[in-house]
Specification:
Number of strands: 12
Strand order of the largest sheet: 3-4-6-7-8-9-10-11
Helix content: 40-55%
Structural class: alpha/beta
Distance between the termini: 32 Å
Low-confidence stretches: 1-15
Radius of gyration: 18 Å
Mean pLDDT: 88
Number of helices: 11
Order of helices and strands: EEHEEEHHEHEHHEHEHHEHEEH
Strand content: 15-25%
């Protein structure tokens, strides 16, 4: 059974929670509404204007907010990821209806007809503009489940939402995915971006990825932008949008919208 760092452990304490323990904690969080969302700015690089906010899931713990990375493996293992994704999608559409355009990650396991129905239902209920909602899917997961996930992509784009292809740390997107599916954005991961100011090879790789995406009509988003020097290099390489601590850390939705998450 896989093991994940526990909430109560403290750095270096060595205490861990088993996946089964996390599964119980996830069930409790769903039952007691102990999930919250934070949002991080995604900016248009040339203008500096805020385009959307990427949403990050947190679990309310006894001593701190627990990042999704600490429990998502257990959620995938025990099947609760679908219920978590449904909670996130419903809340994200509410946020978009309140006037805050959003990006949100989905597990490919959640890309089924039931999720499409939920999205359509919540869009109608909230009167949110679907163009303000971008669903991020991992390239690796999308490639593994291309038929089912591809059907989801086509369905949500028909509803008016947009799709971002995520998870690139080197090499850039696969051209066949960009040609086959109606993808609006390609996201380059933080490892792709890290060290680009000093690394000419990384700059060439980023330039190549940008060219490939632009030829297929996608905008390119750089994640993990930690310095203004990196941001300036990315602008020179043709990056369209960026996010990272250089542009602002994730903030609570309450601070962003004046509503509770």
């Amino acid at each position: 059974m896989s093991m994940l760092t526990g909430e109560e452990s403290g750095q270096g304490s060595g205490e861990v929670l088993h996946s089964l323990d996390w599964s119980r904690r996830i069930e409790e969080a769903l039952d007691r509404d102990l999930f919250v969302l934070h949002g991080q700015r995604i900016v248009d690089v040339p203008s500096g204007a805020t385009m959307r906010h990427e949403l990050f899931l947190r679990m309310v713990g006894r001593k701190r907010l627990i990042p999704a990375g600490e429990f998502v493996m257990a959620a995938e293992e025990f099947g609760s990821i679908r219920e978590i994704d449904r909670w996130v999608v419903a809340r994200a559409i509410e946020v978009a209806a309140d006037g805050l355009p959003v990006d949100l990650n989905l597990s490919v396991r959640s890309t089924d007809e039931a999720m499409v129905d939920l999205i359509a239902e919540r869009l109608e209920l909230t009167d949110a503009d679907p163009r303000d909602i971008v669903f991020e899917l991992s390239e690796a997961q999308l490639t593994e489940a291309l038929d089912s996930a591809g059907a989801f992509v086509n369905a949500v784009v028909e509803l008016g939402c947009q799709i971002a292809l995520d998870g690139f740390v080197e090499g850039g997107p696969e051209s066949f995915l960009l040609r086959r599916l109606p993808i609006s954005f390609v996201k380059l991961g933080a490892p792709f971006i890290e060290g680009l100011v000093e690394d000419r090879g990384k700059r060439r790789a980023i330039s190549g990825a940008v060219l490939k995406a632009h030829r297929s009509g996608q905008r390119v988003i750089a994640q993990g932008v930690e310095t203004l020097a990196a941001l300036q290099q990315l602008e020179s390489l043709g990056i369209d949008e960026a996010q990272g601590h250089a542009l602002g850390p994730p903030e609570s939705l309450e601070s962003l919208t004046g509503t509770t998450a």
